[in-house]
Amino acid sequence: MRRALEIFSSLFVLWVLLFSAAACVVPGVFSPLRPWITAGLGVIMFGMGMTLTPADFARVARMPRAVGCGVLGQFLVMPAVGLGLATVAGLSPDLAMGFIIVGSCPGGTASNVVAYLARADVALSVTMTACTTLLAIGATPVLIWLLGGRFLPVDPWAMVQSVLVIVLLPVVAGLGLRAWQGRRVERALAVFPALSVLFIVLIIASIVASARGALLTVAPLVAALVAAHNACGLALGFGLARLMHLPASAQRAVSIEVGMQNSGLGVALATAHFAAQPLVALPASLFSVVHNLTGSALAGWWRGAHRPGDGVQQPD
């Protein structure tokens, strides 16, 4: 059973392509799923909470430079790059807002898997994801309001409430359940990666079904810009970590963390607050596919280039 779930999860990109194609052919099957996006992401965040322990947060005190580097890249580099790309490309307000939303999101749990495959500092990766996820409660809505308000009206308080419901409550519930049930929860954790893949695939299919009319004209440009956004995050995250003189494994972890976003949260916020503009969710939907492809490729390259002396991040 565990092996079957792992195979299902590893075929994420294939499922996205198949379900997106199906959504173009029979949109009526997938567009009704849009109201369930928030609930689906809540389940994903609950699963993330179940993987965390208090030690993941306590680690901040032992490696503040590395964690701070990741947080800085996440909430300064990615929003700024998203805004810059949207401005230079002259995107429509709805697509520009989409890039700002996905750029303002925290790191996603996929970054932890990629960090492991890349032989990066996995403990640091998990801690950065945990920290940026909690900081997103305030940082993400404020960044979207400050940077995106010029494109579309933003209600920051309503967005804070959304992030509380989508992120904080499920994560805290997952943490609490693991603290209460312990080993029983650990046995159930194998299901959540596959469940996350299923929900993300259905979320993307629902977006494709809702925006298929405009998709053919804007998708190539948006896909290219999403790839550029992701590449800039990976490169600038790595450069920032190198500038801070972090160990090689920590440089990799920061690069991956900054370049890979919680695109599911981006889709959920876009659909909840900009329901009348379905294209707002397109950048986050495509980001989900792109960062998994580039992350896997980068992990393979780094894994091959791994040297015994790379080490792991030491306490500051």
Provide the succession of SSEs.
Answer: HHHHHHHHHHHHHHH
CATH architecture designation: Up-down Bundle
User: Can you count the beta strands?
Assistant: 0
N- to C-terminal distance? 42 Å
Q: Percentage of helical residues?
A: over 70%
Beta-strand percentage? under 5%
- Uncertain segments are 312-316
Q: The CATH topology is what?
A: Na+/H+ antiporter like fold
In short:
The chain is an all-alpha fold. It has 15 helices and no strands.
Lay out the secondary structure.
Blueprint: H1 2-10, H2 12-25, H3 27-30, H4 37-51, H5 54-62, H6 64-89, H7 93-103, H8 110-117, H9 122-148, H10 156-181, H11 183-188, H12 191-243, H13 248-259, H14 263-273, H15 282-305
Helix pairs in contact: 1-12, 2-12, 4-10, 4-12, 5-9, 6-7, 6-9, 6-12, 6-13, 7-9, 7-14, 7-15, 8-9, 8-13, 8-15, 9-10, 9-13, 10-14, 12-13, 12-15, 14-15
Features:
316 residues, mainly alpha, Na+/H+ antiporter like fold, 81% helix, 0% strand, disordered C terminus
